[in-house]
Amino acid sequence: MKNWFLTPVLLLAFVLTGCKDNSDPFVDPGKTEDPKWEVTVENDMSRSMTAVVKVSFTEEEGTLAAFIGDECADIASFVDGLYLLYISPVNEEGDVVQLRFYSPVLKRIFVAKETFPYRNDTNLGTTSAPYTPEWTVE
């Protein structure tokens, strides 16, 4: 009689706990090594937009990069808890910019949920009101 009752209980416990991933990518480390992004777009300061970005889920320094398609348009400088970008276009106005963040502490690549259009000679965020996107795991 004990086995009849124990088997369904163990099966239910496995289904409820063993079939889902309980890890939180914003807390638990992953296994992704540093992607070592390199800027592939020619940096042209006469044609650029700036962005001041805050990565809200960590105070640790990581690597923030702006991508236009598969092209790395800039890698940010980290200054006083903020990331500063000088984004150069791949084509012209309207290129879609996506931010990616590599956390060496969490060993994960995060992608900003929102994208934004490249606009020459404009600023996105300031030091007093930085652009603070929501993130998801790549």
Q: What proportion strand?
A: 25-35%
Helix share of residues?
10-25%
Q: How would you state the average pLDDT, rounded?
A: 86
Q: And the CATH topology?
A: Immunoglobulin-like
- How many strand units? 10
Overall domain count: 1
Low-pLDDT runs of 5+ residues are none
Main sheet properties = 6 strands, antiparallel
Which of globular, elongated, flat, extended, rod-shaped describes the shape? globular
CATH class: Mainly Beta
Going by CATH, the architecture would be Sandwich
**CA gyration radius, whole angstroms:** 21 Å
Q: Please give the count of helices.
A: 1
How do the SSEs run, as a string of H and E?
Answer: HEEEEEEEEEE
> What is the structural class?
mainly beta
Distance between the termini: 49 Å
Task: Compile the SSE list and pairings.
Blueprint: H1 2-17, E1 49-53, E2 63-68, E3 71-75, E4 77-79, E5 82-87, E6 96-103, E7 108-112, E8 116-117, E9 123-124, E10 135-137
Parallel strand pairs: 1-9
Antiparallel strand pairs: 1-5, 2-3, 2-6, 4-5, 6-7, 6-8, 7-10
Task: Sum this structure up briefly.
The protein has 138 residues and is mainly beta. It has one helix at 2-17, and strands at 49-53, 63-68, 71-75, 77-79, 82-87, 96-103, 108-112, 116-117, 123-124, 135-137. The strands form 2 sheets. Strands 2, 3, 6, 7, 8 and 10 form a 6-stranded antiparallel beta sheet that branches. Strands 4-5-1-9 form a 4-stranded mixed beta sheet, with no helix packed on it.
